[in-house]
Amino acid sequence: MMRFLLSFALAKGVRLLLLLAAVSVISFGLMELSPIDPIQAYIGADMMRVGEAQREAIAAYWGLDRPPLERFGRWLGSLLQGDLGVSMIYRMPVAEVLAEKFVASMWLMGAAWLLSGLIGFGAGVLAAMKQGSWIDKAIQWYCYTLASTPPFWLAILLLLAFSVWLGWFPVGLGVPAGLLREQVSVWDRLHHMALPALTLSLVGISAIALHTRQKLIEVLESDYVLYARAQGERGWLLVRRHGLRNIALPAISLQFASFSELFGGAVLAEQVFAYPGLGHATVEAGLRGDVPLLLGIVLFSAVFVFCGNALADLLYRLVDPRTRGEKAW
């Protein structure tokens, strides 16, 4: 087992390094090809009052007057020493910006991940137990409809319904406006996080529900379940004894593999709700040409998604010994 874990970690580590190198080069290249002028975006509304000499000074301060290869080489050298650079927007180290934004996004994505997993798993089990009934058809219709619904569109609908018309939730932001950090209560944070988390949960239900439904139907049609039926087992007791154990782990693995969809949905949902997380920071960095911050977020999100997929892969290999002989590449 230890040998397997070591070889798995080594293979995944090499693959992660190659992935980070690729996304760094591609992201930097795309930012260079972007029509956004980072100096103009940095100056903002004061553009008419800033002269050419001041623009050159700003470019020299942030190193934007250097050739692209030299700037990428400097960034890479700093990265190898553990320094992600300084954000032009927030004027603070990128590592501190990532830590601050990730805390907000972590609670949001964690709540959405947990809710979508539990609700999706429960809906999938219910649909399989009621196969062919109106409940099964309603759950499938709901899942297929949400699977084709853009997260930002659903976020706008929920914002209009629950914040603008009903007034149950705040329109946006992560905490009430005008309050100091020490004045913000846990309830305030949960109240502001509820609607973005609900948006991500509703979008994430579809995959886990449909997967669980199909797997449980296969289990219920297997020979050993037919034998259990012949012994008089029925309904929930039959599913609990012979179904849940077989479908739970694949469902958990699928949920871990959904980190990429979760992060992508969070970017759009945070932008709609003006929630101050990593997604909101990503859009700000892209629109304002903050290359160090954008590269830091890209690397962080790549590690985040890669770890989710690696955990799902590891779970499969631990549960099914037949897959341990396959290469982890």
Task: Give your account of this protein's structure.
- This protein is mainly alpha-helical and about 325 residues long.
- Helix content is about 75%, strand content about 0%.
- The protein contains 14 helices and no strands.
- The model has no long low-confidence stretch (mean pLDDT about 80).
- It is found in: Cell membrane.
- InterPro entries: MetI-like, MetI-like_sf.
- It comes from Xylanibacillus composti.
- Its main location: membrane.
Gist of the model:
Helices cover 74% and strands 0% of the residues. By secondary structure, it is mostly helical.
Succession of helices and strands: HHHHHHHHHHHHHH
- The share of residues in helices is over 70%
- Annotation field: number of helices: 14
Q: Strand percentage, roughly?
A: under 5%
N-to-C terminal Cα separation, in Å?
18 Å
Number of strands: 0
Provide the structure class: mainly alpha
How large is the radius of gyration? 24 Å
Q: Characterize the largest beta sheet: strand count, sense, and whether it forms a barrel.
A: none
Shape: globular
What is the mean predicted local confidence, pLDDT?
80
Low-confidence runs of at least 5 consecutive residues: none
Highlighted features:
329 residues, 14 helices, 0% strand, MetI-like, transport, ABC transporter permease
Q: How is the secondary structure organized here?
A:
Elements lengths: L1 H32 L4 H6 L8 H11 L5 H13 L13 H36 L4 H14 L3 H15 L20 H35 L2 H8 L4 H8 L1 H13 L2 H15 L4 H10 L3 H29 L10
